[in-house]
Design goal:
By secondary structure, this protein is an all-alpha fold. The protein is built from six helices and no strands.
Length: about 180
Amino acid sequence: MKLIPNLLSAARLALAPYLFWLLWRREYGAALAVCFVAGVTDALDGLAARKLGAFSRLGGYLDPIADKVLLSGAFLTLALDGAIERWLAVLVLGRDAAILLFAAAAFLFTTSIRNFSPSFWGKASTTAQIVFIFVLLAHFSGFLGPVWVFLAKWIAVGFTAGSWIHYAWRAVRTRKRVEVN
């Protein structure tokens, strides 16, 4: 029973190549269904972990990795196919790359920085990006009009840019604190 959250995260990770293939083939209805299933497994793994007391180090890594692989891969695939603007994918992927580089540098060059908890802006950015992908796929599948895509895109851009700024500010603030100590 305590493996259920990790199995759900692993299932979400296993869905990633299939999602990318569907996006590349422009099978947006099926891709929307896969995104829905991925969203449900994301909600269920957290719920199961809390209800079963099944928190694990593996789950702590697997859950965000599955989220990032699905989201980053979706943005990359959609940009390469021309379904979204490339600058949008660069903004999203660049933010994630910058966070990873900062975390790697902190691990390599400090002994005091080991906790990289997500901020409100980071969570809001990820949520807005997920909503944008879902709205875009719903639009391509004929369920939503273009105004919804426009709104979701610019909300995602705003939160992603805000997250970039916030994480950069945190990095500078943390660096100054480390230099003082």
